[in-house]
Backbone:
């Protein structure tokens, strides 16, 4: 048996019990095997068994009694658990991202500023490391650092002087490790939507499960009979991407989900709340996320997030934790996404939040710039 085939068999046991179709699983297997594999017959055998197991899993759940002994998971995967496979081992490859963000709020006359909160700092983990972070605003500002309710790093900025311009500048040098967005294990309680959350999970996730006042959803987005989790999440995110027109809008409040559907178009700040609402209606805990996206590997006409801060959604799946979904692009979130804030609604993830004091309306403008490039 070739080395590549051995690697393929290792990959089989990494991520599982998702109920995905055999087509998807076989594509992952073929990617693991590679073109240079010599033992084609051996791979074909594993390919066939994986397909049979997946189809059996979809129709028979945990009842494996009807399968031939040599095709039961305990024999095929050398495991004591009924594990079906998706994903592949992390490659360990990293890329360097250089991010430059700037925003200038300009007022027609000097204003007294309230406390401003900046949530533009990466939520670092094993996959995202900040090698350099540079943040600046007015020289006279008192900047205090906090962790908010969602463990976002926040710069709390106090301004003692009246000003006509308020600048914010950020420089980041990041070390980002490649990540397969499908590399996760689902607990048996998360195999189908709606998820069967434990009592403890429901206590903690309560606000993320509560839908807004009811309004009609298109049939493909509406709740119904239990459906395979990952397949359904893909369908929901892709439906928004394919059926609603994208428009860039840098300022203003996001539209309510019902209004986004009525308009038939929106920005990422509109699509995020819509998908979160759809997930909650379908029994999946969801929160909003914002941050940066590197789109340097896309054609210019396909880029929707490279020149502005982006917004997406995270769904909590038993066994897998929080999984990112981007309805603007119709994808699961991988290492191209750098999260800076998560929260229950748009107010929790706003990159910069604040206002000015006064009894009259003072016109203002926002000039923002963003560069995300691979160093």
Residues:
């Amino acid at each position: 048996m070739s080395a590549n085939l051995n690697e393929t068999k290792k990959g089989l046991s990494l991520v599982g019990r998702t109920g995905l179709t055999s087509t998807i699983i076989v594509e992952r297997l073929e990617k693991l095997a590679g073109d240079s594999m010599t033992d084609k017959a051996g791979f074909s055998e594993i390919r066939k068994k994986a397909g049979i197991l997946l189809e059996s899993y979809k129709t028979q759940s945990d009842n494996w009694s009807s399968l031939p002994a040599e095709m039961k998971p305990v024999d095929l995967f050398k495991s004591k658990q009924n594990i079906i496979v998706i994903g592949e081992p992390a490659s360990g490859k990293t890329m360097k991202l250089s991010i430059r963000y700037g925003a200038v709020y300009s007022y027609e006359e000097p204003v007294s500023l309230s406390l401003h909160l900046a949530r533009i700092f990466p939520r670092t983990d094993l996959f995202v490391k900040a090698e350099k972070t540079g943040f600046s605003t007015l020289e006279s500002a008192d900047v205090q650092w906090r962790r908010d309710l969602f463990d976002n790093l926040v710069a709390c900025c106090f301004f003692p002087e009246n000003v006509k311009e308020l600048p914010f500048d950020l420089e980041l040098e990041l070390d980002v490790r490649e990540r397969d967005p499908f590399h996760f294990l689902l607990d048996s309680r998360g195999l189908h939507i709606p998820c069967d959350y434990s009592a403890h999970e429901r206590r903690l996730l309560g606000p993320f499960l509560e839908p807004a006042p009811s309004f009609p959803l298109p049939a493909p987005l509406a709740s119904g009979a239990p459906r395979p989790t990952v397949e359904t999440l893909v369908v929901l995110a892709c439906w928004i991407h394919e059926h609603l027109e994208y428009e860039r809008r840098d300022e203003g409040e996001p539209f309510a989900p019902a209004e986004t559907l009525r308009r038939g178009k929106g920005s990422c700040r509109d699509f995020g709340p819509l998908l979160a609402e759809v997930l909650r209606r379908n029994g999946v805990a969801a929160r909003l996320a914002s941050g940066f996206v590197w789109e340097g590997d896309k054609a210019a006409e396909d880029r929707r997030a490279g020149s502005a801060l982006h917004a997406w959604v995270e769904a909590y799946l038993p066994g897998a934790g929080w999984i990112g979904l981007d309805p603007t692009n119709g994808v699961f979130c991988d290492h191209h996404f750098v999260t800076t804030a998560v929260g229950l609604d748009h107010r929790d993830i706003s990159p910069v939040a604040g206002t000015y004091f006064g009894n009259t309306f003072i016109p203002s403008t926002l000039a923002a710039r963003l560069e995300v490039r691979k160093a």
Residues 3-76 form one domain. The chain has nine helices and 18 strands. The radius of gyration is 23 Å. The chain has three domains: 3-76, 94-117+129-177+353-374, 188-349.
